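Weekly structure sync, notes
Attendees: PL (lead), two postdocs, one rotation student
Agenda item 3: pending single-chain targets
PL asked that the sequence for the first pending target be pasted directly into the notes so everyone works from the same version. It is reproduced below exactly as submitted, 376 residues in total.
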Amino acid sequence: MGEARLTTPQVGDGDRAGVVLRPHAEVEYADELAALDRADDRPRPPGWELSPWAVVRYLMGGELDDGTVISPKYVGQRRLIEIATATLATDRAVLLLGVPGTAKTWVAEHLAAAISGDSTLLVQGTAGTTEETLRYGWNYARLIAEGPSPDALVPSPVLRAMRRGAIVRVEELTRMPPEVQDALVTVLSEKVLPVPELDTEVSAVQGFNLIATANERDRGVNDMSSALRRRFNTVVLPLPATIDDEIAIVTRRVDELGAALALPEVPTAAEEIRRVVTIFRELRDGLTIDERTTLKVPSGTLSTAEAISVVTNGTALAAHFGDGRLGPSDLAAGIVGAVVSDPIHDGVAWREYLEAVVAERDGWRDFYEACRRLDP
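Predicted structure, written out during the meeting:
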């Protein structure tokens, strides 16, 4: 593989220098990427650091012939990752679509890291994102002093990716206003970015492509134009199919976050994690696991990402203010906070669930009492 562009996972100066809180994927998993590069004898598309086979192996995990273990970055259908990877090897961009918490950003980052060796070319979509953020801006001091010139142009991450032949990520595409989204139409269809002020254009180098993420259930979402949507191959990332898959994801990510945050070690409480995931899945589905009781569905998504946050927060509580063991009282506040986004509608749904399900479930009495203590 080419030289890593980010090689020093430390920041700061003097006494405050230290390890960065969250290394980029190509830094954190540099050893795995290097091992895949050595083992990869398959054809690589122009501009790619690895072959499509190796990219999928990096995302899905496995063991190489030399004994190197590649950790799974995505737990789900392998075919979805194969489709996304194969699409990126063509001239079509990829749109990762799903409800919040389905690992869209995570998958996009690791695809960019494996394909380009650089996941940092990123545009974060918001309601305030402007067209210049997707195309280019200007250094106005130089623009006033010299007039339009290549030196006065400030390239966007999209333009830099086109010049370098790399993957660029556009997060939360549908949060941008539709007229801003459509700035990508020419880039994706013609693979050029016109710069009329300089009477020129930037043509994409082989290896360039774009991964966008979007969800259609959150507030502040803008529909994509049909012209832009046609430029994407859409891959829908679902929530984990089974409770065991979701528990595995939560357990692994909590362990990784605990190490990254240098939290005091707290023994993994498998039963408590299962309890959190069970609650989230039941309220998400509006039905208990045994399919006997219909439930009101809260307004939040109660995603896997939120379950990870609840357990990580509970781990910090147990480590710093508890007995060092993750228990119901450490998780109760986080669960209530995640479920009750709307105090009126969600409050009713949560109290009904607490009394009809939690209070009657064997082995859950301690959790029920911890939640009841949080009622105003």
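Discussion points:
- Residues 3 and 112 are 15 Å apart (CA to CA).
- The first strand starts at residue 10 and ends at 11.
Action: rotation student to compare against the earlier draft before next sync.
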